[in-house]
Amino acid sequence: MMQSVDIAIVGGGMVGLALAAAFKDTELRIAVIESREPDAQLADLPDVRVSALSRSSENILRNLGAWPGIVSRRCAPYSAMEVWEQDSFARIEFDASKMAQPDLGHIVENRVIQLALLDQVKQQSNVTLFMPTKCSSMAMGESEAWLTLDNGQSLTAKLVVGADGANSWVRKQQDIPLTHWDYGHSAIVANVWTAEPHQRVARQTFTPQGPLAFLPMGESNMSSIVWSTEPNRADKLVALSDAEFNKALTAEFDTRLGLCEVVGDRFAFPLKMRYARDFVTERVALVGDAAHTIHPLAGQGVNLGLLDAASLAQEVIVLWQQGEDIGSKRNLRGYERWRKAEAAKMIAAMQGFKDLFSGGNPAKKLVRGIGMTLVSQLPGAKDEIMKRALGLKGDLPSLAKRRQSSMS
User: Rounded to two decimals, what is the model's pTM?
Assistant: First the structure.
């Protein structure tokens, strides 16, 4: 059986669902194709894959109606941030109250964001969910793309959106080349109980082996960690007994929150930078990790992806209202230029950060210490950094801006 839609979104994770939700007030017919249905039952222990949502992401999720679904499940606002280097005087602190902000962001499990968006999308009469279903083939016609699903269903779409993650099937079908490099690190993620409460402060230390972040969760003594280190060391740390891992983690974190105790599973995954040469081809657009992946240093990956979704929706809605072809590469070049520029800035910033903090050369450590002290003391410099991190600066789509109706 053949079904015709305007947009087929391949990938029903956070970014794909945000894109579908962004078309809620239009008559565009949307299909969302996702291979895995998320488990709606949350365990007592948070998932280890979490995101640090910026203010712009919060605005997007509020404007899409998904924010109450996040708050009612589980999310943890954090009100301050401390960044320091081990064995040096380099340190910097950010405080929401000094910036007249209610918080600096929220730590939220990826699945919670996905479920809250799914609640919204399921209410949309213009969206058909194919979940759990996979795409098995894609062919390009003159004015539409043809998709075959593994359940035998066929779809035609004016535009196919690859929202299917770092190893995007859509990107591979289009033979879109990737610029990529290996950061030479793996990230260990886990939930950790600390002897002392986190006091809603996000903490990150730069060690000679790589950065280690403690992200405050809803419980006062529970943090989600992202520990970046050399791959062999990461594998060894994951293989340690809980007692040995706790000892190594507590030491690496300078006993900043007292003794650390890992709770539940821990995983390591390799860190790679990826940047698709094209975000748009004829009848295809890429969003989120399908278009770019960055170092999790500042937890900006999902924020970048949600901004992609909001930006693409904005461009497509304008084209559709003008009666233009929403799948034409020429018409989607504005989206590509916009998001490539923003992604490139973020990739460069993360690389610069990583380079700045790598290496134990005493002269380099001195420069880091002086640099961070200066930024701390220069009027406005810290605010500028924080506004960027909050997503209050840059070329923002309208969904990322605060609306009167979304102030609740």
Answer: 0.92
Contact between residue 217 and residue 225 where contact means Cβ atoms under 8 Å apart: no
**Which value, in Å, is the radius of gyration of the alpha carbons in the chain?**
22
pLDDT tens, residue by residue, 38-65: 999 999 999 999 999 999 999 999 999 9
304: DSSP letter: H
Q: At 211, list the tokens.
A: 């950065």
Largest CA distance in the chain: 68
Helical spans, DSSP H, in 67-193: 67-73, 110-122, 169-173
Tell me the DSSP string of 307-368.
HHHHHHHHHHHHHHHTT--TT-TTTTHHHHHHHHHHHHHHHHHHHHHHHHT----HHHHHHH
Q: What is the token pair recorded at 137? A: 């083939």
Token pair in block for residue 391: 């997503």
**Which of 297, 234, 308 has the alpha carbon at shortest distance from 270?**
234
354/336 Cα distance (integer angstroms): 26
- The model's pLDDT over 262-319, given as tens digits with 9 standing for 90+, comes to 999 999 999 888 999 999 999 999 999 999 998 776 567 899 999 999 999 999 999 9
